Amino acid sequence: MITPHVRGVQGNLVYRLADRRALQWDVSLVVGSAVIDYDSRQTWSYTGVTTGLNLHGLFLEVGMSWGQGNFSNPQVIGQVGFVFRFRR
C-alpha cells in the first residue's frame, strides 16, 4: 500500500491473449470499488475493461471504467507492480 488514505478492491474476469515464457498479455472485464480518505471521503464503484501486460514479472494494467461516486465518467484506471511467475 502506497498510502493509508487510498484503498480498494477489484475483481477481474480474464481472457488470455498470449502466454509465453517472458510475457503474458490479457484483456479483462473488471468490477471494483475505491475509497480515498484524505481531506474528504471520495468513493468510486465501477465496472470496466482493461488490458494487462506482464513482462518478466513487471505488471502493467490500464483501462477505462464507468460507475458511480464522486468521480466523473469515464475514468482511466491502472495498476503497476511486480508479479512473480512460478515457472520452470
Give a short overview.
The chain is mainly β and 88 residues long. Helices cover 0% and strands 73% of the residues. Strands 1-2-3-4-5 form a five-stranded antiparallel beta sheet, with no helix packed on it.
Task: Characterise this structure.
The protein is mainly beta and 88 residues long. It has one domain. The protein has no helices and five strands. It has a five-stranded antiparallel sheet, with no helix packed on it. The protein is elongated, with a radius of gyration of 15 Å. The model has no long low-confidence stretch (mean pLDDT 90).
What is the element layout, followed by pairings?
Elements: E1 6-19, E2 23-37, E3 41-55, E4 58-69, E5 75-82
Antiparallel strand pairs: 1-2, 2-3, 3-4, 4-5
Helix and strand run: EEEEE
Q: What fraction strand?
A: over 45%
Shape, per Cα inertia axes: elongated
What is the helical fraction, as a range of percent? under 10%
Query: What oligomeric arrangement do these chains adopt?
Result: single chain
Tally of DSSP β-strands: 5
Alpha carbon gyration radius: 15 Å
What count of structural domains? 1
How would a textbook summarize the main sheet? 5 strands, antiparallel
Quote the distance from N terminus to C terminus. 30 Å
What is the overall pLDDT average? 90
Q: What class would the helix/strand composition place it in? A: mainly beta
Low-confidence stretches: none
Q: How many distinct helices?
A: 0
What spatial order of strands do you see in the largest sheet? 1-2-3-4-5
